[in-house]
Amino acid sequence: MTLYKPSLFIEHVKVISSGKAVYDQEFKQGVNVVSGENSSGKSTVLNFIFYGLGGDFVGWNRRALQCDTVYLWVLINGEERLVVRRHIEKKKFQPMEFYFGSQVFDDQGRQVFDSYKWKKYPFSRSSTPSFSQVLFDLLGMPEVRGEAASNITMHQILRLIYAEQSNVPQKIFRFEQYDSGLIRETVGEYLEGVYDDELYNLTLDKNSKDKEYDLVDRQLKDFYKLLGGSVGDLTDEAISREIEGSQEKIEKLRQELRAISVQAPPTAESGEEPLHELTDIKVKLRSCNEGIEKKSRKLVDLEFEIEDSKFFVRELKDRLSRLEESYETLQVLNDVELESCPACLSPLTPPIEGFCSLCGSPKSDPSNNLLRMKSELSMQLKESEQLQGARLKEVENLRIELRDLNNEKMVLQGKYEALIDGWISDDHVKIGSLYSDIGYYIKSIDSLNEKRKLSSSLKSLQDRKFFLKNLVEELSERITQKSSEGERIKESVHNKVSKNLIYLLQSDLPRQDTFMEVEGVDFSFEENSVTINGTSYFSASSMVYLNKCFRLALFWASCQIKEMRYPRLLILDGIEDGGMEVDRAHNFQKLVKEVSEEVGCSHQIILATSELTEELDDSAYKRGCTYNHDSRSLKLN
Known about the structure:
Layout: E1 8-17, E2 20-26, E3 30-35, H1 42-52, E4 69-76, E5 80-87, E6 96-99, E7 104-105, E8 111-112, E9 118-121, H2 131-139, H3 154-161, E10 162-163, H4 181-192, H5 197-227, H6 236-259, H7 273-334, H8 367-422, H9 428-506, H10 513-516, E11 521-524, E12 529-532, H11 540-558, E13 569-572, H12 582-598, E14 604-609
Parallel strand pairs: 3-14, 10-13, 13-14
Antiparallel strand pairs: 1-2, 1-4, 4-5, 5-6, 6-9, 7-8, 11-12
Helix pairs in contact: 5-9, 6-9, 7-8, 8-9, 9-11, 11-12
């Protein structure tokens, strides 16, 4: 069968009470039926599955509360096997534990767990990833972000997968006391495949760039308003010419100073102001140099860390890629039956089933260790990329600070040299005049350097505005393309679900006239409703039938449209509710079997019923015996 991803299938369910297995049952792909009398424990089994997969459940009955732990063996995307467990509690938001050890079995074929290889994850995200985040990552499902992000958990996904007995039949989703249209719409579109992480990132990026463009545009307008008609004088070439002219004049003035007879420079005792100014400039230069040296060292260290981190990120990506290849190789080698020893070519004893043909050890599934390593590497890669982004931002800021410090140093050095060169004459009048002129041109150079900063800022803003304009246009185009693709998927899913639902309703026994003559189907995850020919209320049994048919139609669509993220798993309970007659319930079960046989991809349906049809009363479909009050699903004392 074709495998659509994501897919999540139950392979085994075990419930423990006081160290003893009170429910221990294998499940298969395709249709799985849990059958029995009312109140014999069918719904309890399905509640344990819902809870074990991450559902938040506290409505345990008395017998369920005598149990301690539920274990689930699950198959993820047809490739990776995982064991999870949760302890039975009446409190909400319980954590989940994942087993990342090798699979080892005892003499009775029961798996033996190493207590140190269980890893616990909380229900809600925090500094530690939640178990929903880990499962989404293993399933290859993007993490939802945005206003409803923290609420999109495995529990919310399972509200569309599990139609429990107590569910309100008028509603699409499993009942939740504190519910919102935003969460339902997000979950629905997420499972339809409409939600696109790349589209979300593009939209965030465009919003950010739009704001930046508006800011740059306002800054440019302020520049033009401040500078008036002098914008043309802010070119780097014009400023450089003015600075060169001032430097030439300063040099001529210094030559005049040198022409005057030499005398000893003033001393501290002379009380002349130039010495105090010289001391002040020295202090500022020293501080400037220390700042440049400190920031330069930090810049070098950061650049080294960035290069080292680039190598580390590449190595992490390579390791993730090699893990995938290792898994494929191990899957092949694990099934190889060797007839001769590869070292000496001697014939090997025929292997016992389930044991290695070479060393005779029990075969174990290596995917668990690979699964744990893959999860840890993915988290490590995400953290490394975030740190790298912070380093790059810090480098950019350091370079700006160094540029400003070097400009300040150049100005201070000019002042310092001018003062030193000036103390060479006794003619105070002449010296004063010359120093005054030199000071004027030094200030002129300072002003021109400030003007150059303005020029650089103006040029930078102009370039940034041009860049942002092109980037926003490119992002808008990509968002339009992605949105169109999402709308195409949404329309395709809605059309397919509607078509499937019409078929299922028209295949009902002739009990509800509207179902026999369907003209229009409409459903809304946000409104949590399904309407047929504009009507959403029917008889009690027809409401139950419609609710189960919609779940089946949605599941069916996921097996027809590979872009959907619905994990090809459906759990149905309470199909006889609402006073539904036996023949009608049997007819629905036949439709479930028909859908399962029709779809061409791997899937799993788990169904609980007290009125089992002959077509499903077979060991190929039944899981466990037909439970009754003398033989309940939970084998408690």
